[in-house]
Amino acid sequence: MTLPDLSRLLDAANTSAALGLALSSGQLFVAYQPRVRLDDRSIEGFEAFVRWQHPERGRISAADFVSIAQQTGQIVEIGQFVFEQSLARAAVWNEITGLPQLSISVNCDVMQLTRARFVDDLETLISRNHLHPFQVIVELPSSMLGHMAALRNPIDAVRELGARVALDDVSLNGVTTLALARLELDMLKIDRSLVHQVVHRDARAIELVTELASLAAERSMLVVAEGIEDPNELSLLTDLGCDLAQGYFLGQPGLAAEADVLVRRMAHRPAAGALRS
């Protein structure tokens, strides 16, 4: 083993040990990014993101610890923490608005989804927080397309529960409409990289987004544009058939209290209506 390899191994071990402490001592928390409807710019819901506030190193990016958590299996416990926090927060939003009208999206690792009790635990959380199952969106990475044999049953079980399933990070890399047509999904999320290519008039990117929008319309799925950074991107993705959008232009991930403020503002406007069943 070379010194660089040993250094990476030790750093991974240290990060894993620190993560265990972070889970037990409240260093992890959840941030919420609003997602808006493109037709009227109203808030449709929020996506939950795990964050780590280290007492010495400060804010640690999820990109710096999620891959290690996946390798060690800690991603299951972290994922459960995010689901618990996020669904409890959605219950607060229901109290503020008086209606189950806001969705909550939670990223889910393949290891977590295939765990024997995943759907039972999700059902318990939905019931405990008095949510409509339709409010809950389980987001899966597009890399899961290579594990379809193992994932088809748990995906079906989540949808039978009444919750929804989204495919995240859809891009030009390995995602085809043929592969997506074989899945029972409720939402497709266009990765920022694909949005960027569309904005720069990449013919393949525009063709893929157009095909995705057409497939989604046929299958009653929603298409979400991620990473929106300016109004021109919003306009272009709306014209291509996207339904929802999120990104720094529309709102950065914020603390629970900040999300609550947005929901209270929304509650004082004409209601967009409860989620359909």
Task: Explain this structure.
The protein has about 280 residues and is of the alpha/beta class. The chain is about 50% helix and about 20% strand. The chain is built from 11 helices and 9 strands. The chain has helices at about 5-25, 65-70, 75-95, 110-115, 120-130, 150-160, 175-180, 190-200, 205-220, 230-240, 255-265, and strands spanning about 30-35, 45-55, 60, 105, 135-140, 165-170, 185-190, 220-225, 245. α1 (about 5-25) runs parallel beside α3, α2 crosses α3 (about 75-95) and α3 (about 75-95) packs parallel to α11 (about 255-265). Mean pLDDT is about 90; it is low at about 1-10.
For CATH, the homologous superfamily is named as EAL domain
Percentage of residues in DSSP E strands: 15-25%
CATH topology: TIM Barrel
User: How do the strands of the widest beta sheet line up side by side?
Assistant: 1-2-4-5-6-7-8-9
Mean model confidence by pLDDT: 89
CATH architectural type: Alpha-Beta Barrel
Main sheet specs: 8 strands, mixed, barrel
When the domains are counted, the total is: 1
Structural class: alpha/beta
What is the tally of beta strands?
9
